[in-house]
Amino acid sequence: MGVVGDPTLTVEAKRSILMNWAWTEYLIDQATNEGMPENNRPSRLDEVEQALLALERELAADRGNSGTRKAA
Question: Which of 2, 11, 31, 49 could form a disulfide with 36 if both were Cys (CB 3.0 to 4.6 A apart)?
Fold first, then answer.
């Protein structure tokens, strides 16, 4: 969540960092499931997924508050 709240990063940078982190965690999970526990640590994939969801919710809220929505 530190990445999501970092005001010095652009939205694109935040998304890129989180997606790369998610991919790394996924690969570690896959290796562990295949019997290669490299570092014997708990997965952080769920934490990364929650951060990505928070970023997308934040973006959706910003779009909704910017007045770009059309009235139905």
Answer: 31
pTM over cut 0.85: no
Domain edges within the chain: 8-64
* pLDDT tens column, 21-38: 999 999 888 888 787 766
Instruction: Using alpha carbons, list the distances in angstroms from residue 34 to 22, 31, 45, 69.
Output: 18, 5, 17, 47
Q: Which two tokens stand for residue 44?
A: 């952080």
**31: phi > 0 → left, psi -120 to 50 → alpha, else beta; which?**
alpha
DSSP 17-58: HHHHHHHHHHHHHHHHHTT--SS-----HHHHHHHHHHHHHH
